[in-house]
């Protein structure tokens, strides 16, 4: 269980990014975080793992107060929180396998990681996960030879190599075409269901959020203005989140004939 109490972030400029946010995300739940640019979505995710330091409030994962941890304890706690980035954050000159195994750096000694000597069980797990997403044949390819969708899959697998309890996902589809975006969202949800992982997905695409997440939280001006099931998100709620607009064409489910092959089968 992730518990956020009165989380506040004010930047040195005086800008208030988060205003006393209260939130709970139970194990196994995939939650989509939506809202306009500048609403505080990315800041919230980064405050959870303290890539951004909160100004006030408390963040706890399974009862452990993350906001109170010192640097060493925080490094250990971050093993339990996998981060998936919009820009993939891969090391381009390294192979797919090397990028995936970097997810184990928090568990590996300095010299072993320096010489990229990982335990056999980690390598075997990496191959299993790469096979799960259809990338096993690309294990020895450099990351810069991959497409955007393939890079995002590598980023997902790298996060899973941490054996996390929580996934923090920041705009995973922003640089992808519509079909690949749906494949990536489907993959994230399937993997979370398979492993019982909680996830917070910061996403701009409202239709994708409603299609793949059971719960949606809307932020505006650093405050939660909507928190409910995906099917409850309609024009009045979107107006509260984004402002006045004609929302009639914004949300729609994929028609059956639009469904593509399962994400794990796509290279």
UniProtKB/TrEMBL annotation:
Output the SMART domains linked to this UniProt entry. AAA (SM00382)
Cell membrane as a keyword?
yes
Q: MF terms per GO, please?
A: ABC-type phosphonate transporter activity; ATP binding; ATP hydrolysis activity
Keyword hit for Metal-binding: no
In terms of domain of life, where is this protein from? Bacteria
Sequence ranges assigned to domain ABC transporter in this UniProt record: 2-246
Kindly state which keywords UniProt assigns to this record, in alphabetical order: ATP-binding, Cell membrane, Membrane, Nucleotide-binding, Translocase, Transport
Q: Report the Pfam families cross-referenced here.
A: ABC_tran
Q: Which PANTHER family match?
A: AMINO ACID IMPORT ATP-BINDING PROTEIN, PHOSPHONATES IMPORT ATP-BINDING PROTEIN PHNC
Protein's name according to its UniProt entry: Phosphonate ABC transporter ATP-binding protein
Organism this protein belongs to:
Neoroseomonas eburnea
